[in-house]
Specification:
2 helices, elongated, 2 strands, mainly alpha, two-stranded antiparallel ribbon
């Protein structure tokens, strides 16, 4: 269990170092092959609650369906703009869970 604690602590330190280094970057376009890891969590308890905790939210099917629907709508809007001779700026992305 000591090694797990070490991995967690170093993971947190690494995240904070990257966050501090990159927090001022805005509007940086993703490149082909870039991916974003994400997690969906909920806070349980108030900000002054000593027993406040974080729990994983089991809403990923719902959230993925919404993200995919939004992506499809953006794609349709972009296709319509392209057919009207306007700029085609939408680069689609794929929303999927990562297994393994």
């Amino acid at each position: 269990l000591d090694s797990l604690r070490l991995v967690r602590e170093h993971g947190i330190e690494q995240f904070l170092a990257v966050f501090r280094r990159c927090r001022h970057i805005e509007g940086d376009a993703f490149k082909w092959g870039d991916e974003v890891e994400h997690g969906i969590f909920s806070l349980v308890g108030g900000s002054g609650d000593a027993s406040r905790s974080v729990r994983i939210a089991l809403r990923s099917p719902e959230v993925l369906a919404e993200l995919r629907a939004m992506e499809a709508k953006r794609g349709e809007t972009s296709k319509a703009a392209c057919s009207e001779g306007k700029a085609c700026t939408h680069e689609p992305c794929t929303w999927m869970p990562e297994y393994g």
